[in-house]
Protein: 3-methyl-2-oxobutanoate hydroxymethyltransferase
Organism: Saccharomonospora glauca K62
Amino acid sequence: MSSDTPRTHSENPTGGETPAPYGQPPAEQAPLRKRVRIHHLREMKERGEPWPMLTAYDTYTARLFEDAGIPVLLVGDSAANTVYGYESSLPVTVDEMLPLVRAVTRSVSKALVVADLPFGSYQASPEQAVATSARFMKEGRAHAVKLEGGRRFAPHVEAVTAAGVPVMGHIGFTPQSEHNLGGYRVQGRGASGDGLIADALALQDAGAFAVVMEMVPAEVAKQITHELRIPTVGIGAGPDCDAQVLVWQDMAGLRTGRVPRFVKQYADLAGALTTAAKTFADEVRQRSFPTAEHTFH
Ligand SMILES: Nc1nc(=O)c2c([nH]1)NC[C@@H]1CN(c3ccc(C(=O)N[C@@H](CCC(=O)O)C(=O)O)cc3)CN21
Ligand SMILES: CC(C)C(=O)C(=O)O
Ligand SMILES: [Mg+2]
């Protein structure tokens, strides 16, 4: 980014423009004081305070992220990729997602946990969306659900909200529609930007408490953020969204190989774990582990 590019928000303690993302711990993050509720997210928008969201799929990461002050955890259908090893998010099922949601909700006391509804579990009808959401609330003990889609899914959002379940929308690049959208590409460039605005407004009117915008031009995301009362959560949607989300294994550098442009790696967990595994293997082969310290007599 050039030095004369205007920045709307002041320096983020975990972000900024330092060339080396690893190493320097951010300023001490205030712990979450109480259970995060959807009205707190709206209040942060009103105060102009951007907030972070991360995915979580298990107990240790959920606890670490809550303790790090992350107010909202998403049990994403990205678990298809990050947990189950599928090529896309399409194959993951409700029965595969539910135990992960339950693990995360069981592990936190303050963070708001959002369960991502997997492909095929809500699209058929508002009734199907309500039934699946109820399973995530009852069996997963989630606090909210997320579903992909714009105007055409306003009836689904309205029905789930009416059933008492807070809904987070998701527009722009919606990975469950990869084959319809023609691959992983930015959405809402040029004239289709108006469609995105209509999608965002329809979700807000249907009762959504927030909306994820994925791979959307920054200018469009900024305009939508200003037009909505509810918070926008960006992933590849520029700096002006009310919140930002990343998949945790991307953010922490556990995923290796090419990563999407919107990913910033704040650690090198792949490197750290590789070194740990190799050192363990060497020590076992040399019989230098275990020593007396790790042995019972
Ligand atoms: N680990 C992981 N991270 C994610 O962000 C993520 C998942 N998994 N699984 C579900 C979806 C899929 N997502 C994806 C996957 C790939 C691209 C991607 O390849 N983006 C390229 C192409 C952009 C373009 O051609 O315009 C990029 O460079 O950003 C983006 C989002 C986001 N979600
Ligand atoms: C990337 C986020 C927004 C998501 O939908 C997921 O992790 O599944
Ligand atoms: Mg998802």
Q: What stands out?
A: Strands lie at 51-55, 72-75, 112-116, 144-146, 167-172, 210-214, 232-235, 243-246. Confidence is low (pLDDT under 50) at residues 1-21. The two ends are 60 Å apart (CA to CA). DSSP finds eleven helices and eight strands in the chain.
